[in-house]
Specification:
With 309 residues, the chain is of the alpha/beta class. Helices cover 31% and strands 23% of the residues. The chain contains twelve helices and 13 strands. It is globular, with a radius of gyration of 21 Å.
């Protein structure tokens, strides 16, 4: 764990779309969460569609456009056309250079940029004094192991600096990648999205076999697991799913707790801003009493602690 990073690992680059400091819900203590782009899943309720592609992208908020023309003036591909009071963004011609986003005061944003392990760690280390013994760095996404080499180098760098690490993962990856990361991860925040195999494939876009097998593999190898469960009203807020969560928790020897993550509508406007044809799933945000009832239902079926994420 104390093996120094090579120059190649320090200079390794990946695509990061956000970094949040002073996080308290992505593992123990105070943490900096690093969000990596790229995900193999297409969950029906995804509230971070900007995380799905591994490439940098341009987000455009039509309602925020003031038609100043700065974007059109700097775009090398002529993607932005202002005519008759309308702003047309020809995404097919976009080379993702980010010039328009840098020039725009309000409506355009570059989602994702290439960063090195060294530059990410420089940002993470700014809050080193606040981490204490329990805090540190969390990798999220997207799916962090979609960029497995970059994710592993970041985890190694964080451990080298003496901080704790957590990874929020959907588990859709080769188990060898997870095994390589075990030495450098203190907590796996492992998504458990659906108990029904049929509904899993329908609403998440893949068969559940790899994800379930990897969860069992991590547990068998002694990983500390937080079972993180998004509960989406009208999709998986069902008794049989709650039973499945509890049964899965009961089957794990190294589980820390179950976390219930209620669905919300925060991502509804993002799909259009990213230029995606797919419409956002309309999600009804549950009230606190409903979430508490979900937690009581699951807790009644397991001795593993169940709490809100």
């Amino acid at each position: 764990m104390n093996t120094p990073l090579t120059d190649g690992e320090k200079n390794l680059s990946g695509t990061v779309f956000n970094m949040q400091r002073y996080c308290t819900h992505d593992g123990p203590g105070i943490r900096t969460t690093v969000f990596l782009k790229g995900c193999p899943l297409r969950c029906a309720w995804c509230h971070n569609p900007e995380s799905q592609s591994p490439l940098p992208e341009i987000s455009y908020s039509e309602g925020s456009c003031i038609h100043c023309g700065h974007c059109a003036a700097v775009c090398p591909s002529g993607c932005h056309i202002l005519k008759d009071g309308a702003h047309i963004f020809e995404r097919a011609d976009c080379i993702r250079c980010g010039a328009c986003a840098r020039a725009c005061p309000v409506a355009l944003n570059m989602v994702g940029d290439r960063q090195t392990v060294g530059s990410v760690m420089e940002e993470v280390m700014k809050d080193r004094l606040f981490y204490g013994e329990t805090g540190g760095m969390t990798l999220s996404g997207g799916e962090p192991f979609f960029q497995s080499e970059f994710a592993l180098a970041l985890l190694k760098a964080a451990k080298k600096e003496g901080m704790t690490t957590a990874v929020e993962t959907c588990g859709q990856t080769a188990y060898g990648i997870l095994r390589d990361a075990l030495e450098y991860v203190d907590w796996f925040l492992y998504d458990y999205k659906e108990s029904s195999s049929e509904l899993f494939e329908k609403n998440i876009g893949v068969k559940p076999d790899t994800i379930r097998n990897n969860l069992a593999g991590l547990d068998g190898d002694g990983a500390n697991i937080v079972l993180r469960c998004p509960v989406i009203p009208g999709i998986n807020d069902r008794t049989d799913h709650f039973r499945g969560i509890a049964e899965t928790a009961n089957s794990l020897r190294h589980i820390v707790c179950v976390e219930i993550d209620p669905g919300h509508a925060i991502g509804e406007g993002k799909y259009g801003q990213m230029g995606y044809d797919r419409k956002a799933l309309k999600i009804r945000t549950p009230d606190n009493d409903t979430v508490r009832e979900w937690i009581r239902d699951i807790q009644s079926r397991t001795n593993v602690p169940v709490k809100r994420a």
